[in-house]
Amino acid sequence: MAFFRTSNFSDPLAAIAGDGVTLRLPQMADYPEWAALRDASREFLKPWEPIWPVDDLTRSAFRRRIRRYSEDLRTDQGYAFLVVRNVDGALVGGLTLANIRRGVAQAASLGYWMGLPFTRRGHMTAAVSAVIPFAFSTLRLHRVEAACIPTNAGSMRLLEKTGFVREGYAREYLCINGIWQDHLLYARLAGVAGS
Ligand SMILES: CC(C)(COP(=O)(O)OP(=O)(O)OC[C@H]1O[C@@H](n2cnc3c(N)ncnc32)[C@H](O)[C@@H]1OP(=O)(O)O)[C@@H](O)C(=O)NCCC(=O)NCCS
Q1: Nearest residue CA, atom 1 of ligand 1?
Q2: Nearest C-alpha to atom 21 of ligand 1 is from which residue?
Q3: Topology of 16-189 in CATH?
Q4: N or C: where does the chain have the smaller number of CB atoms within 10 Å of the terminal CB?
């Protein structure tokens, strides 16, 4: 019989170092910078994300978000990181390993966003490349999945650059920007890139 580890971090989760960026857990002190960046990036992010609740950028919604992330981490259901630029500590975006499935799946779903002023500088390539060893070694996952809308050229290029392989096409897979939208399905398996 096979036994699969679930990760229970008794110590605070260490930050993950990437090329020019660091992935670290969000905290309440991040609220002003996070809200300002999300607000400035609203029109850019809107077509690719679920509809934002009306109070999404308020301090109390951020507090609930932090609580949910902590609970997900404690119960090994998900790992949400902020992406910070090393040169000046600026918050540039976010990345999440969500919907962790243990047992015979050992899989997670990858999500990410980059603040508009920081796009196309390689930051998300660095962040995804850094989270992959964490997913496969620290969390002992076997599979990291990602999905994107076929017109999302940036996301497709990012996934292909970081070793994800296109596996399929799912009709009306996620409700994005208020519409059930078809998605391309990508995955990366533990082991070599492009597997
Ligand atoms: C997708 C996203 C996270 C990429 O972040 P980023 O930090 O700009 O990505 P990188 O700078 O690491 O670029 C990765 C690759 O994608 C390419 N790319 C990025 N944005 C692009 C765009 N709008 N069109 C075409 N290619 C793009 C980059 O040129 C690079 O490829 P290259 O090295 O061959 O030139 C960012 O564009 C974003 O947040 N988009 C909106 C939200 C979103 O799409 N979320 C994911 C939903 S699935």
Answers
A1: 155
A2: 154
A3: Aminopeptidase (3.40.630)
A4: N
